[in-house]
Amino acid sequence: MLGIIIGIIVLVIIYKIWSSQNTEPPQIPRLDPDEWWGPNEARGKEDKSVRPFQVQFTDEMINDLKNRLKNRRKFTPALEGVGFEYGFNTKTIDGWLDYWAEEYPFKEREAFFNKYPHYKTNIQGLDIHFIRVTPQVPSNVEIVPLLIMHGWPGSVREFYEAIPLLTQRAPGYNFAFEVIAPSLPGYGFSDAAVRPGLATPQIAVVFKNLMNRLGYEKFYVQGGDWGSSIGTAMVTLFPDVVLGYHTNMANTQNGKSTFKTILGAYFPSLVVEKHLASRMYPLSSFFAYMIEEFGYFHLQATKPDTIGVGLTDSPSGLLAYILEKFFLWTRREHRNKVEGGLGFRFTREQLIDCLMVYWTTGCITTSMRLYAEDLSKKNRDLALDQFTTPVPTWAFQAKNEVMYQPPSILKTKFVNLLGTTVLEDGGHFLAFELPQIFADDVFKAVDAFRNWRK
Hints:
This protein is of the alpha/beta class. Helix content is 43%, strand content 12%. It has a 9-stranded mixed beta sheet.
């Protein structure tokens, strides 16, 4: 009884705070559409053409990588009876490193990476890399543009299995997607900013400019992880540009969402459907999970350059650091397995592909800086989550995503949330893990957006 009374008091306090801050700021911030992120000496000299690009695994790079892998130091033995609770289990790592050095078919994978058309173009001082695949469909099938965005520690590689499904007509629909999949600035084959400040809202500006350069004034958006944050910024800053927003990591953090989340801790039926309550509550379980698994987030949001030194220099360290996320963010129970869930959904080849994007470009440090930029005071002061957006939205929610929010919370931001797909399967890397289910849901969502706009 005492706990309920305390809970009610806390809710009243939070409600008063929420009420006092509930009025939206008078105007959505306007970001500079030409803010320069490249070297100052390059201003006015950038090549704004759209240029073909090819991924290359040079012999020099391959030989250097193999030498580093083969000449690695002996690792500290894992503790008895543990899986991945302490991080990547060193009983497992040698097999991965040996495969990468001796069996991974570098030249075949180079050709695989180049199976889709790659391009670069300079936006606001940065050469932005993107894949662009145009459907080959009959003239009576409409082609609609889809900007699809990855996150960390992902890359455009996540979309390779889904792209052919998106770029052909799916049964029951009279349209197919022209897929534009960019590498985020500082990730993979895209340039990194040379000065602080490039967070997800500023990347939203960069990608809007990219789509405009490709001839699209309006388009659909899909995103997960950082791609979700960028997508949310886009539908907030440019609601007249985005035709519809599909995300596999739907979330919002504002006064209303916080109030409802805490309310649901005491009265879950007021916030979330009974059969889904365990994805949110008890909050103690969620916070325990964050403490156990989100240490990387604090490191990358505070000292990305320090940890980047080791990961840039050591392919063994890079493998351990990144693949741990692919294992544990796919299924939480993999944390307790010595092999980390190896072979559950991804092949060795697929996962080393993901590492190659980071290793060959040396982008791990600049990719991690996005955490520091997004949590900076400058970016927090924009407070974009405090603004609602009218853009029609669809949430694609995997069972094993790092967090879950129900429609009652999501609608505090996305007022036209047209639907949700709640899976009993899948994890953080949905396009990579379940490409057919992912593609089917994108079609379903965009069809709903198109009908809603009619």
